[in-house]
């Protein structure tokens, strides 16, 4: 009984204890048997946490308001701390200690510990993830996308650029109002919207010369302008190059224009001002824009008070909770008067400042003059800078030309010489200080990022302020910056007060013998015409003995010059030097000497050695060859920190002294040399390898050719560790000194024949510092062998890997990395965890690139390029069937290039995955890929498959090229087409099996879902070339869906089996099409009938509302845009029932079946209203270009070119033309035509026929060219002679039957004027006209007030110029066969067939 009682009392407690023990034991065992899942969960959790942290940091970077603000600074730090712990745990999971040392089986104690720690960290991550952030603010920058007034202004500008009547648009406004920023916003938007094919940005500035603008323009447009001196010839070359780009839409932005630029002198002829070319100007002055031809000028206004304060508040990061500060801040913003530059400078300066600073800013700004609010805000920010060093560096930047992109390294050299930074003792410290201050000034918006990473730009308004500060004499310098075309005449004392002068020479300037500048501290002289043009006289520097920094670029120094003994920095870059070592002997205080890119005409090795004990930086990288240093030259340079020796190729002389002297330089931390002598290189570094931190060693001449010496100053060579070894002896790779160098290297390039060991053996403890690795010609079979003995972080910092011509390479690694099987995206671990760029080329034996365990770790890969690897079948392969659980993912990959891989079938292979190998992108996720290039892949059958290509892959694909993949049947079919929903451009070339581009058969869509019924909705460009087997572009497009609704450019060329481009059911799809170019011999029509397609429901008219350029070439069977039932007789007219209201360019070449181009009855009203350029070339059934009333459709045509045509007997046939003679517009026919060119018109009888009386024709014709039209008897009837009042150039050549320019038409009546004036005609060419008699046989008095060139060659029948009197006051003579100009008086001798001098003026008629 007692036992029962005890049991009743104890049992509940015992059960509870047992349950708790069971729970605890179960939990402990869970750490073991759920080890894999716990570790995987930890990886996933930390990945999500990192993403959230990155979002917060991105928001902070762009000054977004983040809620809750109390957490925004603490939370990321907590994440970082926890992340370190997680990384340590995850690193331990890959370490060998998780396996038993004896048997190699899992170590249960280690796994238990790791699993337990991971579980704890998962809980901590969950707590951090609970903190939710909301980004409610806006970007605090000087942009326009978040300001309503700026958005409307930007829209106005873009609308003006889209208007075909505007060729030049101006942006005007106050200094600091944001004109340049607005132009940049417009540039970004038009690029995004693809309004232009090319956009060129040219910064003009105040003092820029035409030549410099021409160079900038050519560079921006990628044009080749070889003429370097003559501005007129350069302008002509620019115009020629622009003409080559006439088919493209080009926007040229000229920023910061101060005075009017003559665009014709620049290279924009009047013929360049076509619809496709637009010019956008920014200027403070509206009259400048108007003077340059801008009909539309849009003013950028100041911000209104509400926008200004919202903008200011975001910049200065003010909390809405601080009401007191908000009130002061609003007043401060009001004092900036809505000027974005002032708001930004003041706002960024006041970030995290106390209330007292805000009050002081308000007081200072209120006491400034109203008209100087921008300068006042800059001045206040300038005074508020942290130190005098900040102010000095900012003022130093103002020395450089306006809008110059300033290399920070140049500032370092100047700052060192001028002793701007008092606390820095080494160049490296000065460099770090200059970078830090530059970053601070950029954060205050007093400096802007430069064109390159290590450069800065000073806003022109801030530069003006800095120069005004300097001019007041309150600081260490005053400055003068001039662009000099000739040396100015000036008062002898004019430059005496200047302490800094920058001179840029434009041309062959002759410098004065002496230049009196007694207070000058810094002088920079630069020649734009290169070395040898401007010579520095021997005594030029005699009166500049206070100089401490000299920077000379591209000048000639023939003989020694006397420099200041206090000189600390001397740059003689890209100069021609006729000076010896003794020249530098007196410069005892010199600390920086650079001779970069200069030509040395004196042998230094023969000079007496001079001591330079204070030199800290010595740059001897001459343009050609090494600097032959005499023994002992470097011995005295005990303070030398940076030595750039240049090229030592093919040098067989004594180099032992260089090795010894470099080894004695204990302060040296940066060494550069290019040499092919490996032994010399090794000995050189053995003595100084420990001291040298940074080095640039190169044995690769190809590298040097690609990376010219001119780039070195502007690249951060002072902080690089580069080693490039070419054709090195393989045995030397194992030497300790070489291994030490490779271990230190950040960029390593090896080209070694005969090295057949794994590359990893080159560095025993790994390439821990390596960021870029290039391997060429190595005989290794693997990069990594014996994977089990290699730490996983051996390439942890590697960002770029290139493998070239490694003929024996089989695979990256010869074994899997089991410890990396659980590597996931976003966690920085794995063999190539930080690799961004991978390139493989000419690796003949490689069949697979990576094992799947390695590929999974490549989470940061951004660019993948594989070329000319004929055996390669897959990128990634996995041999363990159990591993195929999820798609392979490259989460950051942006560009993929697969080219010339004849065996390649798939991105990823899987065991037992029958049928999947034929799909290129099977089981691989590429969520961020933007560009995909697939060229000459001989084995792929499919690119995409909805079943095999994971959902979400290719979501960002924008550009795709498929070139000659001979087993590929289509680009995409059925539902896989949906994967290309964001594709913007597709280029397809060749393909022996490719018979359809997009096969829609089997496509499933939900017609109620707006997104689903829009297919290929972002595709803007489609280009198809050499599709010999292509039958359809689209096939079986379902009813009710929209396809190609944003297509802007369509080019189809040499697709021999295409009969039409698209089925008639798609007529209304091309609402955005701007360019249509077709060149396919068998095409009969643009829109045809697909098999099974009915005839009902088709529109009677085709409308291409946005089409601007239409090109139809080599279409021997083409007759019409779209076939129509029962439309008998319409097929002979090309543009029947086609509306083209915006077409500006029309090209019709070799259309063998068309009989008419236009018909007033069949071409809809309003079509061709904006046609400017028209070319008709060898259309053999065409009878005329336009006839009767259809001529009216060409009322805005500017240029017409006609070539050949077997049936073409008249250009414009006016018979049947109906006009209202009381309507001024109707009686002006072809009134805009400025150029008419006719070539090879073998059957052409008339240019015009039956022109009615009372109408005006060709009244704006400026250029008329007629060549090889053998049936023409005259160009125009005499009744039209008074029409050509604007004609400037007339050229008639090789026309066998022509007798005169203006002839007699049948039934021509009298009563015409007796005096005919050609007011604009400047040039007449009459060449190769065997039957030509005279200009006109009527007895008119012909007046040519502008004629200055009359060229007559091979006109044997011509005896006089005209029957009447000739009046040409500017004409000096006649140019003959040999380009000899014979002066008047002359006669025309028909017997001799030549022109010669005559003794009497009476013979000239």
What does this structure look like?
This protein is of the alpha/beta class and 1405 residues long. The chain is 22% helix and 22% strand. It has a 32-stranded parallel β-sheet, with helices on both faces. The protein has a 5-stranded parallel β-sheet with strand order 4-5-6-3-7. Strand 22, helix 21 (678-686) and strand 23 (694-698) form a beta-alpha-beta unit. It is globular, with a radius of gyration of 39 Å. The model is unreliable at 1-6, 61-67, 96-105, 135-145, 705-715, 818-828 and 1386-1405 (pLDDT under 50). Keywords: ATP-binding, Coiled coil, Leucine-rich repeat, Nucleotide-binding, Plant defense. Residues 32-59, 218-245 form a coiled coil. Residues 165-322 form the AAA+ ATPase domain.
Sum up the structure in keywords.
1405 residues; alpha/beta; 24 helices; 76 strands; globular; disordered N terminus; disordered C terminus; ATP binding; ATP-binding; leucine-rich repeat; NB-ARC
Summarize the structure.
This protein is α/β, with parallel strands linked by helices and 1405 residues long. Belongs to the disease resistance NB-LRR family.
Shape: globular
The structure class reads alpha/beta
Tell me the number of strands.
76
Biggest β-sheet description:
32 strands, parallel
Helix content, binned percent: 10-25%
Q: Which regions are unreliable across 5 or more consecutive residues at pLDDT < 50?
A: 1-6, 61-67, 96-105, 135-145, 705-715, 818-828, 1386-1405
Q: Can you count the helices?
A: 24
Q: Whole-number average pLDDT?
A: 79
Distance between the termini: 154 Å
């Amino acid at each position: 009984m007692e036992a029962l009682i005890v049991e009743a009392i104890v049992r509940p407690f015992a059960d509870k204890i047992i349950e708790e023990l069971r729970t605890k034991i179960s939990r402990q065992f869970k750490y073991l048997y759920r080890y894999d899942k716990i570790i995987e969960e930890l990886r996933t959790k930390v990945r999500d946490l990192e993403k959230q942290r990155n979002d917060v940091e991105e928001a902070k970077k762009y000054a977004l308001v983040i809620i809750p603000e109390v957490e925004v600074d603490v939370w990321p730090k907590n994440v970082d701390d926890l992340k370190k712990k997680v990384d340590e745990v995850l690193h331990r999971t890959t370490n060998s200690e998780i396996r038993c040392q004896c048997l190699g089986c899992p170590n249960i104690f280690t796994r238990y510990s790791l699993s337990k720690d991971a579980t704890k960290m998962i809980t901590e991550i969950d707590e951090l993830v609970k903190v939710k952030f909301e980004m409610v603010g806006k970007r605090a920058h000087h942009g326009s996308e978040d300001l309503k007034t700026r958005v409307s202004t930007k829209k106005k500008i873009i609308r003006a650029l889209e208007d075909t009547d505007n060729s030049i648009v101006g942006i005007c406004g106050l200094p600091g109002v944001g004109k340049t920023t607005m132009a940049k916003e417009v540039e970004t938007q038009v690029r995004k919207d693809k309004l232009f094919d090319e956009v060129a940005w040219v910064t003009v500035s105040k003092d820029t010369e035409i030549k410099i603008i021409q160079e900038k323009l050519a560079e921006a447009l990628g044009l080749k302008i070889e003429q370097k001196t003559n501005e007129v010839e350069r302008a002509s070359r620019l115009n020629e190059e622009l003409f080559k780009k006439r088919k493209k839409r080009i926007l040229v932005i000229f920023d910061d224009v101060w005075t009017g630029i003559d665009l014709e002198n620049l290279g924009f002829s009047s013929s360049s001002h076509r619809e496709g070319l637009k010019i956008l100007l920014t200027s403070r002055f509206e009259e400048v824009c108007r003077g340059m031809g801008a009909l539309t000028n849009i003013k950028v206004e100041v911000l209104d008070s509400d926008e200004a304060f919202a903008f200011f508040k975001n910049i200065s990061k003010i909390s809405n909770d601080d009401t007191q500060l908000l009130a002061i801040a609003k007043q401060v913003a009001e004092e900036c008067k809505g000027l974005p530059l002032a708001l930004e400078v003041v706002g960024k300066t006041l970030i995290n400042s106390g209330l007292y600073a805000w009050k002081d800013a308000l007081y200072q700004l209120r006491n400034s003059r109203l008209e100087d609010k921008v300068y006042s805000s800059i001045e206040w920010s300038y005074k508020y800078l942290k130190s005098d060093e900040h102010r000095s560096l900012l003022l130093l930047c103002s020395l450089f030309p306006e809008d110059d992109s300033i290399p920070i390294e140049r500032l370092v050299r100047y700052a060192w010489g001028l002793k701007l930074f008092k606390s820095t003792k080494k160049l490296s410290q000065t460099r770090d200080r200059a970078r830090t201050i530059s970053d601070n000034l950029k954060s205050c918006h007093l400096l802007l990022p430069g064109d390159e990473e290590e450069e800065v730009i000073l806003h022109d308004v801030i530069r003006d302020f800095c120069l005004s500060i300097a001019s007041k004499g309150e600081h260490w310098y005053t400055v003068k910056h001039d662009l000099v075309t000739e040396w100015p005449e000036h008062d002898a004392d004019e430059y005496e007060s200047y302490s800094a002068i920058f001179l840029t020479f434009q041309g062959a300037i002759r410098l004065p013998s002496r230049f009196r500048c007694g207070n000058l501290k810094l002088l920079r002289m630069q020649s734009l015409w290169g070395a040898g043009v401007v010579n520095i006289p021997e005594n030029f520097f005699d009166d500049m003995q206070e100089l401490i920094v000299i920077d000379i670029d591209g000048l000639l120094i023939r003989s020694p010059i006397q420099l200041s003994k206090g000189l600390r920095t001397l740059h003689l870059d890209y100069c021609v030097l006729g000076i010896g070592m003794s020249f530098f002997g007196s410069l005892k205080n010199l600390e920086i000497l650079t001779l970069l890119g200069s030509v040395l005409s004196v042998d230094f090795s023969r000079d007496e050695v001079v001591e330079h004990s204070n030199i800290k930086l010595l740059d001897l990288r001459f343009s050609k060859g090494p600097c032959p240093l005499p023994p002992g030259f470097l011995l005295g340079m005990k303070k030398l920190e940076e030595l750039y020796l240049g090229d030592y190729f093919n040098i067989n002389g004594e180099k032992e002294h260089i090795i010894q002297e470099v080894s004695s330089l204990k302060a040296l931390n940066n060494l550069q040399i290019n040499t092919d002598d490996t032994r010399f290189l090794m000995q050189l570094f053995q003595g100084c390898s420990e001291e040298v931190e940074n080095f640039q060693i190169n044995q690769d001449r190809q590298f040097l050719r690609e990376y010219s010496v001119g780039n070195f100053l502007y690249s951060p060579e002072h902080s690089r560790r580069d080693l490039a070894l070419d054709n090195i002896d393989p045995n030397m790779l194992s030497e300790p000194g070489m291994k030490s160098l490779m271990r230190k290297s950040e960029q390593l390039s090896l080209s070694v024949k005969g090295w057949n060991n794994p590359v990893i053996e080159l560095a025993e403890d790994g390439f821990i510092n390596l960021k870029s690795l290039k391997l060429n010609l190595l005989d290794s079979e693997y990069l990594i062998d014996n994977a089990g003995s290699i730490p996983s972080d051996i390439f942890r910092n590697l960002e770029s890997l290139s493998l070239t011509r490694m003929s024996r390479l089989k695979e990256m690694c010869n074994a899997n990395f089991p410890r990396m099987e659980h590597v996931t995206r976003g966690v920085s671990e794995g063999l190539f965890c930080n690799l961004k760029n991978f390139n493989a080329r000419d690796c003949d034996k490689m069949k697979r690139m990576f094992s799947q365990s390695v590929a999974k770790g490549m989470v940061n890969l951004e660019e993948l390029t594989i070329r000319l690897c004929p055996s390669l079948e897959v990128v990634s392969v996995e041999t363990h069937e159990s591993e195929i659980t999820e798609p392979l993912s490259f989460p950051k990959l942006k560009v993929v290039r697969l080219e010339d891989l004849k065996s390649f079938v798939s991105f990823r292979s899987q065991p037992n995955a029958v049928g999947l190998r034929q799909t290129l992108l099977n089981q691989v996720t590429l969520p961020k890929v933007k560009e995909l290039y697939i060229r000459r892949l001989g084995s792929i059958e499919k690119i995409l498959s909805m079943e095999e290509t994971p959902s979400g892959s290719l979501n960002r694909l924008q550009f795709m090229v498929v070139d000659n993949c001979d087993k590929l049947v289509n680009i995409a079919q059925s539902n896989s087409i949906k994967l290309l929903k964001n594709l913007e451009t597709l280029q397809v070339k060749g393909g022996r099996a490719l018979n359809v581009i997009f096969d829609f058969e089997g496509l499933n869509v939900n017609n109620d879902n707006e997104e689903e019924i829009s297919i290929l909705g972002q595709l803007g460009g489609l280009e198809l070339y050499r599709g010999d087997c292509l039958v359809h572009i689209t096939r079986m497009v379902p009813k009710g869906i929209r396809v190609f609704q944003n297509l802007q450019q369509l080019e189809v060329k040499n697709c021999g089996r295409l009969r039409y481009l698209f089925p008639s059911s798609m007529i209304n799809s091309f609402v955005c099409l701007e360019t249509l170019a077709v060149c396919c011999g068998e095409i009969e029509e643009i829109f045809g009938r697909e098999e099974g397609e009915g005839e009902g429901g088709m529109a009677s008219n085709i409308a291409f509302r946005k089409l601007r350029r239409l090109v139809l070439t080599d279409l021997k069977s083409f007759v019409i845009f779209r076939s129509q039932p029962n439309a008998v007789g319409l097929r002979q007219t090309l543009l029947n029932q086609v509306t083209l209201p915006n077409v500006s360019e029309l090209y019709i070449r070799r259309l063998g079946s068309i009989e008419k181009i236009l018909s007033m009855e069949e071409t809809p009203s309003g079509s061709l209203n904006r046609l400017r350029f028209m070319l008709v070339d060898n259309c053999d059934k065409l009878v005329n270009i336009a006839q009767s009333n259809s001529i009216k459709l060409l009322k805005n045509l500017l240029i017409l070119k006609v070539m050949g045509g077997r049936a073409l007997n008249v250009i414009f046939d006016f018979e049947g033309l109906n006009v209202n003679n009381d309507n001024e517009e109707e009686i002006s026919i072809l009134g805009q035509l400025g150029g008419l060119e006719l070539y090879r018109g073998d059957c052409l009888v008339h240019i015009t026929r039956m022109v009615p009386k009372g109408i005006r024709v060709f009244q704006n014709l400026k250029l008329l060219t007629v060549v090889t039209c053998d049936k023409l008897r005259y160009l125009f009837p005499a009744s039209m002679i008074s029409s050509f009042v604007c004609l400037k150039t007339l050229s008639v050549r090789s026309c066998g039957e022509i007798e005169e320019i203006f002839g007699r038409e049948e039934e021509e009546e009298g009563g015409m004027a007796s005096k005919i004036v050609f007011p604009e005609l400047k040039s007449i060419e009459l060449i190769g006209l065997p039957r030509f008699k005279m200009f006109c046989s009527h007895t008119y008095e012909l007046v040519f007030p502008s004629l200055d060139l009359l060229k007559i060659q091979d006109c044997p029948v011509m005896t006089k110029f005209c029957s009447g009197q000739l009046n040409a006051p500017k004409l000096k003579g006649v140019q003959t066969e040999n380009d000899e100009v014979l002066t008047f008086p002359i006669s025309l001798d028909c017997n001799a067939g030549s022109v010669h001098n005559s003794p009497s003026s009476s013979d000239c008629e």
